[in-house]
Amino acid sequence: QVQLVESGGGLVQAGASLRLSCAASGRTFSRYAMGWFRQTPGKEREFVAAITWNGGSTYYADSVKGRSTISRDNRKNTGYLQMNSLIPEDAAVYFCAADGRLGVPVGRQPSEYDYWGQGTQVTVSS
Fold it and tell me: Confidence band (pLDDT; 50, 70, 90) for 100?
């Protein structure tokens, strides 16, 4: 079992940066791919970024590519999402997730992830 807790969200102005953190408990976190998703009211949860278990490969949605960096520190059981040049369209609840499957390609669909945090709110003012 893996428990995930996000932090780092808040209210920022357009153009600012934020670093979201995802603290994991459970010894198996370091073996799992990790992803970030976001959701706004009335919309489906959408993929933002993902990283392999060892940090060797990263994947991004087109909407954040070039402005965001996903990373992880398995020694600290923590994942990160650095977001720069924030725009109002980035405003959402951001969730981190861990994919409990081993030996499969990193997923971009919420259904491919087994463990979820409670989310952290990001608000961007124009």
Answer: confident
